[in-house]
Amino acid sequence: MKAVLDACVLFPTVLREILIDTAAAGLFQPAWSRRILDEWRHVATRQGAEAGAEIALLQARFPQALVEPGQGGFGLDLPDPADRHVVECALAAGAAAIITANLRDFPRGALASVGLRAIHPDEFLRDLYLRAPDPVLAAVQATEARARAAGGDMTRKELMRRARLPRLAKAIARLDTTQAAPFPWPGATPREPN
């Protein structure tokens, strides 16, 4: 499946790293346009950060992700016509979805009319996790390790909270508890405590 990553999901480092690592694991094919990358750069600059090196690394890692949008979104009724380029990128890429935290900017009916849907990154990653838990968990763990190496001493819960991924965090916690719970073999009798 191809999915366009909107600038709002590329800018936050933790979220971007989890999404990109799941893409590298083959769970989906990311797509973006030059304008989406420029929006990321602009937001980073406004926040006093520099995104140039991160953008260059991302492009080197996924050279096939860069798409030249066409005019397929012409006449599409979006709350902000300036977001039309994201839809045009998705159409040019042959993507099924736009991963964005700004769902209100991409109404369901308008996108359905061109065969697309917008999905929040939390829901998207949770769904990927439910289908393929190991690579998504590996992406989360790799992001945790990078954060620790950079001096960010925080728990997974805090990391997921900062990335605004509560559904994914719950799904991981739920699976962790079910895997940790003992499951008796059929016909086994419970042991008496020593």
Automatic annotation (TrEMBL):
It comes from the Bacteria. Residues 2-103 form the PIN domain. Pfam families: PIN_3. InterPro entries: PIN-like_dom_sf, PIN_dom. This is PIN domain-containing protein.
